[in-house]
Amino acid sequence: QVQLVESGGGLVQVGASLRVSCAASGGTLANYAVGWFRRAPGKVRDFVAAISQSGGTRSYEPSVRGRFTISRDSAENIVYLQMNSLQPGDTAVYYCAADGDGGAFSLTAREDDYDYWGQGTQVTVSS
To answer: Strand pairing partners for 7?
Structure first.
């Protein structure tokens, strides 16, 4: 069973950058599509970005496209979410999740398709 641990969250100013990481143990993350989701205060958890097993397919929620970049380092068994030009609306707990059911180039934005979840890391953007 894969265990996922997020790290790298913190408190930053508007316009700053932050990179959050999703590290896996108990399995090879390269065998999974990985997604990032976030839950803002008082809201439901929403899709942010996803990357396929091969890394060849990526998807972004429209409000983060062009500011956020998802990538994977298979040698280190880590998936990153680079976040630039952060805004107060990006304040949330960020979760990573792994989906082992798709093909090398497939990914999904549906929470229910993901098999494993981390505990989350808090990102706070202060104005």
So the answer is: 21
